Amino acid sequence: MKFFKSGLILLSITLLFCACSTTKPVKKKGEIKVTRQEYLKALEAKLSKISPEQAAEAKKLATFHAHNFYEGLKNKNYAIFSKSQKLGKKNFNLWCNAVNKKYGKLESQKYLGVKAEPLAMRYIWKWVFKEKVMNETLQRDVLFSARIVKYKNKKKLSLLVVGFE
């Protein structure tokens, strides 16, 4: 009987290790990862091309939103940030802390240019973050972009996506 018990215990431990090592992580229901390009492709039927005459207006709109994100993050100014993004104050503070922890303190931004896509204009800035690590200052350059689109049923241009690249 003692041999039977020890054999069962050994078998159950072996099965447990085998099951743990071959089990794939379960995806959460409803969790779907979509890239910006896939999102833009899904909206293609609702969008129209931005005319060259509207390019100045598109740049002005992108600059407005990028400035709000920059000032909001640099100075932790929720009032300015909320002009572009509807996010609760608590979530805004969590976002600021997460960005500061990952990249460091936001120092400056520089406009790099625009990339014309078939149905969107992508305006790109370089944001410079600095962080002091062991008496050395590390600089991280991060690309920040704003995509401007024109919906067929609207006269004005709209912000589609804004964020880090």
Largest sheet: 5 strands, antiparallel
The residue-averaged pLDDT reads 83
Question: What is the distance, rounded to the nearest whole angstrom, between the alpha carbons of the first and last residues?
Answer: 65 Å
Please give the number of β-strands: 5
Beta-strand portion reads 25-35%
- Content-based structural category: alpha+beta
CATH architecture of the domain at 50-164: Roll
CATH class of the domain at 50-164: Alpha Beta
Give, in order, the helices and strands.
HHEHHHEEEE
In helices, the fraction of residues equals 40-55%
In one word, what is the shape?
globular
CATH topology of the domain at 50-164: Nuclear Transport Factor 2, Chain: A
Number of helices: 5
How would the blueprint of this fold be written?
Elements (H helix, E strand, L loop, with lengths): L1 H21 L13 H7 L4 E2 L6 H21 L2 H4 L7 H15 L1 E12 L3 E14 L2 E16 L5 E8 L1
Antiparallel strand pairs: 1-4, 2-3, 3-4, 4-5
Overview in brief:
The protein has 165 residues and is of the alpha+beta class. Helices cover 41% and strands 32% of the residues. Strands 1, 2, 3, 4 and 5 form a 5-stranded antiparallel β-sheet that branches.
